[in-house]
Structures
1.
Amino acid sequence: MSITIFDLQGYKIMSDISVLILSVTILVLVLIIIILSMSIKKQRRKLVSMSRENSSFKTLCDLIKAPIWFKDQDFKMVWVNKFYAQMFDRSKASIYGLTDKELAPAKLAEGYYRDDLMVKESKKPYVYRENEKTGLWFETTKFPLLEENGNCYGLGGIAFNITALKKSESLMHSVVYNDYLTGISNRLSLSVEITKMLTISKENESQLAFICIDLDNFKDINELYGHSVGNEILKKIAQKLKKYASDKGILVGRFGGDEFAVVVPNLKSYDYVTNVCEDIKKHVNSIYDIFDSNVTINISIGVSIYPKDCDNYEDLVRQADMSVHVAKEQGKNRIVFYDEEIGKANFKRIKIEMNIRSALDNEEFVLHYQPKVSVDGKSILGFEALIRWNNSELGFISPCDFIPVAEQSDLIIHISDWVLRKAMIQNLQWNKQYGKMYPIAVNLSAKQIYRMDFLPKVLSVLEELNYPPQYLELEITESMLMSKDDASRASFEKLRSMGAKITMDDFGTGYSNLSYLSNFPLDKLKIDRRFITDIGNNKENQQIVKAIIMLARAFDLSLIAEGVEKIDELQYLQSMGVDVIQGFYFAKPLAPDTVYDFVKSVESGDWAEKVVRD
Ligand code: C2E
Ligand code: MG
Ligand code: MG
């Protein structure tokens, strides 16, 4: 089919092809118009929705309790939220068009300008925390407003008040890094600081001293005076250390319990550390007047040095700790520097800890017996049972080395039970063999006597073995009596009423409060070896022993001198009126099968002759 178009006059004006082209063109135009109109409608709908979103966004921003602002590319305010306007106590409209210069103090405005410029140029958000002088903390986020082509046409910002967060952060820091009781650095904080100091020391090739301070007898003080007194003492000591260290570049902290640490960086000489330790002793050692109690405090100090002794934090602490232990063993209230010998002794201690658990089961313990002899050498008045440990790996180990290890756990209870029983069985056996029984003394441990089952256990062994109580002697030490425990006192009273004897061992080395002499059931005082050594020439020891003799007389107690090694010691004690002697002069602790030989030599008068002859 073909179409021909005529004008009104009937002239044919277009050919078929031209008509076709025109029709297509019209169709295309119509289509374009339709598409355009649809697109315009869509765009309009989007704009409407965008403007709705925009106002929702603004409403949302107004609800937020933090300042929010938008600036143009010249950093003039174009929109702020309600909170922002309230902050400046102005209307929103009055802020628009202003810069920070006109809104904030000059110094702050300068900083804001620099930040804005950076965000605009980097086209990246920037988050920072600021502390206004008011004490308020803000976390501010600034972000660029970017066109699709990447041009920055302005900035937005929001600032959150994080003062509460900051406060809780600093509280957390203080809880984590400060000692809750004394307020000085705690163990964690010390570990962080010392590790940093060690890194600096390595870089500078300088030395650093770690000083570990441990209060002497603090456990006893706590028990005797109560924990609140103990706590007050710890607080006072912390303050003293802090004051001492304040202008010396020295770090102080509490390691835990009754242990404090002092760190001296940039050490020039070992003498300087010695001086610091002496100074600390002078400052801390004193009588503390707390809640009407006068408490005497002394400290033991252990020192390790980087890089002489080790090169890391853990070893530094370990070595100073070992040195403190040595200071305690050597009689407390002293300063000990770490050396290789201490390391070896500690290694032995660890070995003891590893082996001691199985020692009882493997029957590795034995008892030796040291005779107590009359000062003229004529008669044996009893024996003291002294434990020995013979281990296949470690050899013969002294009770001084392993009893303290056993005392750290309940092992001491099992060992003590074994000693008590074994000593009684041995005595009964001698009685069977030689027709003679001697009083046998056993050493007790503090852990043992404060247990509820102490008395029932002793009574049950006595009964089971049918052992006459008058042949049992119990040796205790002064430090065991520091806690006011009426139950343990009653136990000793009961045993004493049955005929057993109670001896105060190592007398003169323990706690100076002697009130127990009048109210604790005691029979004998054993003068400690340290006062006996060379007593003939040592005037001070002579005075001490004289005083002990007077005390014993005043409280109607018998006396034994232990550790008598030489005849002149024996003669001096004889002249002072001490009549029972225990010591190497007569015999070292004897293995059970050699005891009878000694008994015979005394009975035959050999010793009496020797004493006269010497
Ligand atoms: P201790 O009860 O004061 O015992 C006396 C210590 O002095 C013994 O040491 C003894 O061998 C030693 N000794 C005696 N005479 C002399 C002397 O003339 N010169 C010298 N240098 N030393 C002398 P040992 O046997 O090594 O015992 C040491 C400590 O171990 C005892 O001191 C006691 O506290 C404790 N111990 C010993 N056996 C036991 C036990 O079975 N149980 C408990 N809990 N502790 C024990
Ligand atoms: Mg003893
Ligand atoms: Mg003793």
2.
Amino acid sequence: MTGIDQYKKNKRSLKSILLAGSLLISGLLSAQQPKVLQHGAHRVGKRTDVEMATWRGYGMGQFIHWGVYSLFGGELNGNYYNGAAEWIRSWKDMPNGVYDSAYKQFNPSSFDATQWAKMAKQMGVRYVTFTTKHHDGFCLWPSKYTDYTIANSPCKKDIVKQVVDAYTKEGIDVYLYFSIMDWHNPDWRYDLKTKEDSVAFERFKLFTKKQLTELLQQYPQTKGLWFDGTWDNSWKKSGAFTDTLEQYLKTLHPGLIIGSRFRADEFGNRHVDATGVLMGDYEQGWERKIPKTYADVHGNDWDCVMTIPENGWGYQKKWLGHWKTTNEILEMTAQCVSLGGNFVLNFGPKPDGTFRPEEVEIAKEAGEWMKINNAAIYNCEYAGWEKQDWGYYTKKTNENKVYMIVFNVPVSRSLKVKPSKNTLVDKAYLLTAPGKTLSLEKLDYDASFIQLPSAQYKQPFVIVLETKEGGEKSDEQKAKT
Ligand code: FHN
């Protein structure tokens, strides 16, 4: 290489270093100066009011999907729909008009909202989310703004009112599910590509506002709205409207809780705005999945909604494949609460208004467990302790109590307990035997073993750890090898 070549090479590398440096600096600067959004999140961090504190403490909830789709139960002419049964209207084999006139057969002769609410109460759920209108657009309340409602079915009863009243009477808080996407309304658009689309969608937005206002005015006990069907471009292009509407609904109904599925910002971002802040009172993206670690929830409130079969929210005549056992459901509940979230289990009542026997059984078994162990689920939060293989820690909010919800007993019966920094375990005992202290065998770093009494552990169980502040942490003693 000549001296000139060497000089050019050095110049080139200097240039690329300078370019990389300036890109880095401008990147850092723009990261420090978030975009100013007009319709982004209006709060950073969790809500601190009493309504949200109640929501946070629920632990376990129930979801109910019920509507015209239940009549089909995922079946059309002997074929089973290979997808969620409540989507059957969109099945290519569904003849035009068949679904939309099926409501004329919706007559749930055995529907008894009080029985539903009592089953939920016995199961131990503390809130319910009920489908007032799913994607098919059929309203389970007699809405003034469309004819496609329960009032025009042979049922005629205001189902939403009955559910709201019955659950409220049992002390279970009610949240109303509402699909923005509405396959029945001619003004609904997936996207806004023409002037005509925009004009129709303006009408649709007004219709939506009126229906939501109607729901909140007719069912004032409602604690929150659970939105769905907000993923299409038409809604994403309506960021300003979603923002104004959310604020309007909250003014109408102070304390109202709305998750992150509702809003879009002015750039069409959903859930999280262009600056990375959650839009909504809690993260609503955990559908049929649970975060693995606390870091995954980004400091937000959240809940997980889960089906009993693998997929399918509305009634399915046949549950194909695996469906969850009560112990799996309890484990998911424990996992969610241990990561600071609520767990919500879905039920899909039959067209006659009764639940399938599997659902009744799960509600009963889960309730029996919750009756004994609910202290580890209600008003509990992330404990901040290192997860161990035996199960999940939950911490009672504002108390010095940590619960171990044990699902896997090792053959040694030794359960490792490793508290968070500056926390010591004062006392350990089984939730069912508070008078009998379990001894803690100290390990040579800041952990202990609890040796379980010899017994057959057939069900998940709870150990209470009374804690106190203190204890300097030492690093795990590693042998020098
Ligand atoms: O498409 C719906 C589905 O049918 C069901 O209602 C679930 C419940 O979370 N939400 C939608 C998919 O995200």
3.
Amino acid sequence: MNLYEYQGKKLFEKYGIPTTKGILIDKTVENDYVYLNQLNLNFPVVLKSQVKVGGRGKAGGIKVAHNKDEFIKYLKQLFNLTIKGVKVNKILIDEHVDIEKEFYLSFIIDRSKNQIVFIFSPLGGVDIEEVAQNEPDKISKLFFDYEVFDFQIRDSILRVYGKRLDVVKQIEAIALRLLNLFRENDCILAEINPLVLTKDGKVLALDSKIIIDDNSEIVDQYEEDDEEISEIEREAKIKNLAYVELDGDIGIIGNGAGLVMTTMDLVSLYKGKAANFLDVGGGARADKVKESIELVLKNPKVKALFINIFGGITRCDEVAKGIIQAFEQKKYSLPLVIRLEGTNKEEGREILNKLKELNNNVFFVDTAEEGANKVVSLLN
Ligand code: GDP
Ligand code: MN
């Protein structure tokens, strides 16, 4: 998993790597001038598109604003920008730095050697592959298994850059901290390009590129952090419900991923559009069913609900109890279609008789096809 620049910079802070301080904003505030005016900006500021692709600078995704007017102008421009096919939905408003010199610094797993490589170059800010092609003697590489001595890192830096020892010392300290970050976060790559020397003699990370091994548990915490998932999806994760939000207006709940997908296909066959995928799983108890209904109906786009249960280990009476509990608590009035088949279906249907008092728009069907057809027709 690739991290956003702002996420990488948060890690830098945690590991004591000097970096710029920024404010992350979201496309939702693009026209919120009250909010934008409230931001306490110290001009000039740098606006940096947050997309998980490189070469943003060259693609026009990074702008320096010297005043409020420029800031608003660039903000609009960037939020309308697509970089290598990726839309800009987040911008990091970053501290502006006066750059004296740009370096390149990274740790990478070398798959062929099964080792970690430390790479350093005094020619930063540009594509490192270009440097490797044109000036290979300006790149220093150090291979090691897991442990490395400080002096090895220092020598590696000195091989290509020895002008200012105060700067070398700062780079060395940053490299060692980045290596801790790299190891403790199951990284495949941790890259700072550019690492800059400022006009007042400080070395700091101006950009970050972090890739975490997809097999690592660390990636879980970022999926939750990922702003691309909706509030409801975030809540579903916490409650351990298998929920995916979609664009349509028909809420779908079923047991078993295969059955839920089939239900969605049938709805689409009858020209309806599913608002979500929700699988209550095998053997779901009443409280889980109730929670699932509440979750699906939090999406304001949902105009009708189709519950399709084929009981095996899941018992229809438990499902029915959950449905009653949900509708007793919140008097949902939207049209509702229910198909209950399988284990304990008679008991389940018995319990559901009560639902007619709670919702006068409920329909019971015997097959999934019938249900899909019914729920679509209720919306037309
Ligand atoms: P990338 O193009 O996606 O790798 O984005 P970077 O964050 O590396 O930025 C590209 C270039 O923009 C850098 O190499 C810098 O030259 C420039 N840049 C970014 N932030 C600043 C800043 O605060 N001050 C100045 N002067 N230049 C910056
Ligand atoms: Mn960069």
4.
Amino acid sequence: MTPDIRPLVAGNWKMNGTRASLDQIKAIAEGVKTDLSEKVETLICPPATLLYVATALCDDSPLAIGAQDCHQAQSGAHTGEISADMIADCFGTYVIVGHSERRTDNAETDHLVRAKAEAAYEAGLTAIICIGETADERKGGQTLDILKRQIAGSVPDSANSENTVIAYEPVWAIGTGLTPTVADIAEAHAFMRDDITKRFGPAGHTMRLLYGGSVKPSNAAELMAIANVDGALIGGASLKAEDFLSIFGAYKTLLD
Ligand code: PEP
């Protein structure tokens, strides 16, 4: 945690979820209607097919809804893509960009991720910019160099603490059940804080830095307590309302 930063607990549903899964969003939207939401923000990023219906379900809930990617252009001949404006038109307020699965499956570069984040800003969305090292890069002792390079390349100069969240997601920890040690996460987040503060000045002190990679109810309290970890980006454990709400609930004791 970082003093004076309101944490964000965010779920990335990836390519999971049909209309039947809207029951889980309804349950999460109800479950976060507690005093804790004044102190902790919550977000679910379902597949684009559910975006519009999901935001309608959250009308009277503090739960925010976002998308998992956007195109860098505002509109045009880009078959199969969705723009940041379209996400905003569906009342989405966040978009994830540069997730490692997109960097790998779609060969997305830092340069492209930066352009997507800029498109998100133009549309009034907050971009969650994902960065993180692979297993080989970690073994080679390159973790902090990779984070530095990805922040420099993927985070636009116009980033601030309102329009940007940075998610540190070690690629080898995503969906594997493996997590770095508390000391390793603390080192990475302290390094990122220092790096963005040097570049963005005071905005760097208040920009949220999420940890993602096998966050679950059983480890959430320990991981969320680490200095400079301002919330979580959760894949698998965000699909079930009970698990997502339990991770959100971990903040009850942390913020007491
Ligand atoms: C993710 O995909 O962003 C993620 C962190 O997945 P998981 O929580 O399943 O490791």
